[in-house]
UniProtKB/TrEMBL annotation:
Monomer. This is Shikimate kinase. It is an enzyme of class 2 (transferase). ATP binds at residues 14-19, 120. Keywords: Amino-acid biosynthesis, Aromatic amino acid biosynthesis, ATP-binding, Cytoplasm, Kinase, Magnesium, Metal-binding, Nucleotide-binding, Transferase. Substrate binds at residues 36, 60, 82, 139. Its cofactor is Mg(2+). The gene is aroK. The keyword Manganese does not apply. Its EC number is 2.7.1.71. It holds the Pfam family SKI.
Length: 174
């Protein structure tokens, strides 16, 4: 059985949306798109530069436009940015245009995976752990609100996560 609808990956920074998304797209024979990379391509600059010049609000406007364009495509696996679910319009768009998969990650996993990352504007703070906890408290209910499938990514391999998602999507497609 082939999955033809879009699959949207949501979740916090460090949950593995891009890594898992690439493998999931390959497994499902769909195109892979990373919304943050798409924004950078369209703007010709890094996301941290957009944050520096336009602030988070300017970035979120660009993100909303890109998500609107990408969600109209057919047969993609889309890795969204961690904050893509902040705007109600984005949540409505994602939940109406495909299957939404929430990739959960522990704060410890997020810290580990972002330890050397200097390209995440919201994590350029002194207390990264406190910032991640704050973001999770704000965003967790929004991730849960639109998730069709929720997968914990902390204690498993990318391959196992991809297999779980694939199996669940196949079950729902029957």
């Amino acid at each position: 059985m082939i999955i033809t609808q879009n699959v949207f990956l949501i979740g916090p920074v460090g949950a593995g949306k891009s890594t898992i998304g690439r493998q999931l797209a390959s497994e499902l024979k769909l195109d892979f798109v990373d919304s943050d990379r798409e924004i950078e391509q369209r703007c010709g600059v890094d996301i941290d530069w957009i944050f520096d010049i336009e602030g988070e609000e300017g970035f979120r406007k660009r993100e909303q436009e890109v998500l609107g364009d990408l969600a109209t495509r057919q047969g993609i696996v889309l890795a969204t940015g961690g904050g893509a679910i902040i705007l109600p319009e984005n949540r409505t768009l994602l939940s109406s245009r495909g299957k939404v998969v929430y990739l959960q990650a522990s704060i410890e996993q997020q810290l580990e995976r972002t330890a050397k990352d200097k390209k995440r504007p919201l994590l350029q703070v002194d207390d990264k752990e406190a910032q991640l906890k704050k973001l999770m408290a704000e965003r967790e209910p929004l991730y849960q609100e639109i998730a069709d499938i929720t997968i914990e990514t902390s204690e498993t391999t990318v391959r196992n996560v991809v297999q779980k998602i694939t199996n669940l999507l196949m079950e729902e497609a029957v």
